[in-house]
Amino acid sequence: MNLIVATGNEDKVREINEILKGSDFVAISMKSLGINPEIDENADSFEGNALIKVRTVHSITQDYVMADDSGLCIDALNGAPGIFSARFCGENSTYEEKFKKIFDLLKDVPAEKRTAQFVCAIAVVKPDGSEFTVRGTVDGILVETPQGNNGFGYDPIFYVPEYEMTTAQMDPELKNKISHRGKALNQMVAKLVHK
User: Fold this and answer.
1) Active-site residue set
2) Which of 55, 96, 121, 179 matches a 20 to 30 Å C-alpha distance to 149?
3) Average pLDDT score, the chain
């Protein structure tokens, strides 16, 4: 069955499909179906933004639809950039610019206090209109020198002490097992499969 993902980010869709392997669902992006509504993510939580996206796309397709909202929450910055992670430093800023801004803000924070959490909230609307949300998190420490070529977004600066590497240095199988999105997707699959 198709699971329409309210995103145009094909990296994200690929990652979702790796986690969906073995289930009855195949993730496809809304953009690949020509669905591209204006979505104003104006909620004050990850769950709220995911619900805005998923309800907007479901109103067009009436199919299984999922949306996620995820971000980096830095303890020393009171949880910022949080729900503004993708738009941090402006809509079209590069991740290099985002990294620089973060480390400018953290310049007086000692390395061991640069703790952070990746958060992923997923919302799903089923064809009958019923909906649910799940949340996954992973804890880490920010490193100033980006490391690794796997992953995307903030992965190169998010170091997981337990594995002694950034999430961008992990092979996809490990990352999908321990990541915020992996944890949330596994909860989502469990809820979809066990109706």
Assistant:
1) 69
2) 121
3) 92
